[in-house]
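Hello forum,

I keep getting stuck at the same step: I have a sequence, I want structure tokens, and every attempt I make locally crashes halfway through. Rather than fight my setup again tonight, could one of you with a working pipeline run this one for me? It's a single chain of 246 residues.
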Amino acid sequence: MSHHSIIRVAHRGASAQFPENTLLAFHEAIDQGVDVLEVDVHRTSDDELVIIHDATLERTTNGRGNVRDHSLEEIRQLDAGQGEKVPLLAEVIQLARTVQTRLFVEVKVATESEALVVAEATIRALEAANFLSQAIVTSFSPGALLHAKAINGEVSTMLDPSPQDGSLTPREICAQALRAGANSLSCDFRFLTPAVVRECQLTGLALWAWDPDEPQDIREMLTLGVDGIMTNRPDILNKVLHDATI
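Reply #2:
Ran it on my machine without issues. Output:
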């Protein structure tokens, strides 16, 4: 059984092995073989878009405090791991263009109003770089995705439904995406069932499984028939795919 149609997404790059959301992690993921890089975007105090997961600096850099309270110049002086700097969205777009990889750009939700501003800035950045058609804007915020579509109806969007704890019915999961005007859904692999996969297919929504890193979990997602897999270990995903086609 061939799984070549599975779309391989590197979650924050090859983030289990290298500092997450850094150019190093993205380059390594590309070398391992992926179709999409997933990145997280926040705003600096001078309104530049940087690639970092948390609203705060402590976990992934040697800085302190909120991303939003620091200028780009200040953030660029930080160590994001192994001497890597916090990248700009523009840098990651350029990398993706060079290697013909697509991007998932996640608008993080510190507050709903901030999510709307970042969603708009993200659309503008993708437009300016002529990369809108190669990106999917993702968020846990339906409002941010609706705002993104209102600014440019050609953007593809993906919703992370809430809560992701197994309590939503397959229909409720799909209904959240439809209300957000989203084209696809991203769900924690632990809560994906055949019923969820089937409902997404019947509703016309692409389904992305996020964060299976163990071979048996990846194999289970392939069997379920998801459209894509977002993993912190692209190397393991590729080994499983290779073994499945022998």
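The first helix runs from residue 23 to 32. If your local run keeps crashing, start a new thread with the error log.
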